[in-house]
Amino acid sequence: MKHVLHIIKNKQKLELRFEILKLIRKWFEREGFLEVDAPIIVSEPGQEPNIEPMKLAVHNEKGQAFVGYLHTSPEYAMKKMLAAGFDKIFYLGKCFRDRESFGHNHNPEFTMLEWYRAKRDFLAIMDDAEALCRFAAKSLSQGKYKKRIDTANAAKLSGGWQRISMRELWKKVVGVELNDFLTAKALRKLCVQRGFKPANGEDYEELFYRIFLNEIEPKLGMDRPIIVYNYPACMASLSSLCKKDKRYAERFEVYFVGSELANAFTELTNADEQLARLTSERVARKKRGMLVYDIDAEFVEALRFGLPKSAGIALGVDRLIMSILGCKNINDVLVLPMSKLWNHEEIKGMNEMC
């Protein structure tokens, strides 16, 4: 009965959730995008060293077992579509990540909005993100649901957004020149100076986020949404490097009321460079004791075949809904969050096993 009671308790919020999903699709249809499917079960998920996929066994009719994973993002599939000639595409559906907390900003099963534009760079995606969020917030502010939303947050989403480079942000908040801290050695010293105790062998990204997550992120987007762009090159992931300064990458993230909403790239199209980065990330995964699996060779071949210049973004829909409704916990905007699937003792036991 607890499932029904959870839904009854959050019925008004869930109605708004479903309305926001309708508005998202309406905006993309208006802008000429095509909604696409992506396989949820994949043989080789992404290699990001901070994301753990859910592993599963898939059996055929003869009982033969194949190792699969629930996708953490539709990114690889959508880039294969771009290489095959698709142009403006979006995906709105479920993604899965293991070893996530149950509640606050996270749920192991979550709704992802991902879209791509061929022949464009991340500046076009910045404009898209602003326009989409503004459309959703304004539509709800003027409609029958206006008394159910957080009017202050809706007004902020509907207004002007801030854009700032990562280098400018560190200078403003941390008071340092990021150019002086683009190596793990230099950044480790800064972490120690600021009272952190990094473990031996932590890589640049781990050190970077010690400062960023504790000193910078909680302050972001409190007055209005903020786009932070041009990440250090060693954190480029699947993005292209900046043409004018190869020390940085054409990657940006959107933050609002102290939480990350989206992550975007001008996409890397060089197959050899991408293979080198994926190989490096695979090594980092092994070093951190995470699941290790093969690199998706078909993804690399798609780039080699000819991924056009393109840009894309992944936006956390549940967090966007939370911000529009003014909710503090993701569980309040989900039909059945993970925390409702097991009782607290079972969850505690599973956490001890992990």
From TrEMBL:
Q: Which PROSITE patterns match?
A: AA_TRNA_LIGASE_II
The protein's name: EF-P lysine aminoacylase GenX
Print the keywords alphabetically: ATP-binding, Ligase, Nucleotide-binding
Q: Is the keyword Isomerase assigned to this protein?
A: no
Q: Which residues form the Aminoacyl-transfer RNA synthetases class-II family profile domain?
A: 14-337
Q: Which InterPro entries would you find in this protein's record?
A: Aa-tRNA-synt_II, aa-tRNA-synth_II, aa-tRNA-synth_II/BPL/LPL, EpmA, Lys-tRNA-synth_II_C
Q: Which organism is it from?
A: Candidatus Falkowbacteria bacterium RIFOXYC2_FULL_48_21
Alphabetical list of Pfam families matching this protein = tRNA-synt_2
* Entry GO terms, CC: cytosol
Presence of keyword Nucleotide-binding:
yes
Q: Which SUPFAM superfamilies match?
A: Class II aaRS and biotin synthetases (SSF55681)
Sorted alphabetically, the Gene Ontology BP terms of this entry are: lysyl-tRNA aminoacylation
GO MF terms listed in the record are: ATP binding; lysine-tRNA ligase activity; tRNA binding
